[in-house]
Amino acid sequence: QGYALWFSNTTFDYISKRIKDPRNFSKEPKISLTDCLMACFGVFNLKWPSLLQYEINLKDSSLRDNFCRLFKIERVPSDTYMRERLDLLSMEDIAPAYKKLFALLQRNKALESYSYFDGNYLISIDGTGHFSSDKVSCKNCCIKEGRDGKVTYYHQMLAAVMVHPDLKEVIPFCPEPINKGDGSTKNDCERNAAKRLIQRIRREHPKLKMMVVEDGLASNGPHIRELEKAHMRYVLGAKEGDHPFLFDWVAHSKTTEYSHQDTQGVIHKYRFINKVPLNDANFDLLVNFLEYQEVTSKGTKKFTWVSDIELTKNNVYQIMRGARARWRIENETFNTLKNQGYNFEHNFGHGNKNLCTVMGLLMMLAFLVDQIQLLCCSVYKRAKQLSGSFQNLWNRMRGLLEFLKVDDWLSFNLKIARLDTS
Asked: Which residues, 6 or more positions from 52, have their beta carbon under 8 angstroms from its beta carbon?
């Protein structure tokens, strides 16, 4: 599939037709909300490091014309005007764009390769910060006070991405913001955000079979009950220091042990038991416990998880691989966003209401579009291979926009991949 299909039929279509302007104008503004949204999305798509750079770049008439053609912008907004308009939007305005892209992937059977254990799709969930300051703040900032009395304002979000042990590309759902709600005096927290995120994903995808993989912070009674209520399978990290009751119970119970060696000489050791109580406070909540050791010439790595999936010698290897794929949310998602050109932690603008969150969601949306291209578009994949690193790919994209006329995304991608020398 070409970039034009993914982009114009989904992202642009949704932004231009579905997101309603929260402000009531007596007459139509000269610069539309659609232009503001697409300009901001364009900044993140092209990995411009700041809105100041956006202002500088668009003084070049040829680059500005290319930018407007690619992102279907009628009038280019200033950075100040863009921030002002986007500040009034919310997560609810942006989230359906993710669902539209996801539906397009499903219709084109692009997600079939992500089907994992028993037809379930692995969903890795974890939180990350994207703004922190001791000076800049808004009414939705969470607040942290240090021992020295220093106050820090911050924004976080809880992300959920579809992963697979054999695939580098990840497919993010719309993240859940972790911030103060209107009128709240208390900080939001990851546990509350997880409840909202799980409920929203299930509402958006009522028939999708999902297996959630998370770190040890998630293996608590309330969270597990939320997953069960949403009919999501789970494999969650469980550390001995956090679960003394569980580990003591396992130590005094009969467990099944199993090991095998793969073709690389790695020895895989498993110890597991089904239907044990999570802890004394949730004695009626029975989980299945898996301990895994990976033995190589460099040493031994040990992992432990709890799951609702009945464990057998036939499935523990697959369960283990799925659980370890959780790291793709940190390596392929957060690390890419923060260290490979997306400038996720840069303050593109904070606003007074929702700007920081809206920009974070638009940046993650740009990341989703990139992941779709890497997964589905042979031209884009060739461009990435020729460029080597993501940084080189972004540099090549920006350079072509500056020196060549670009009419649409297909011709742009062909030029990046050196398949069109015109």
From this structure: 79
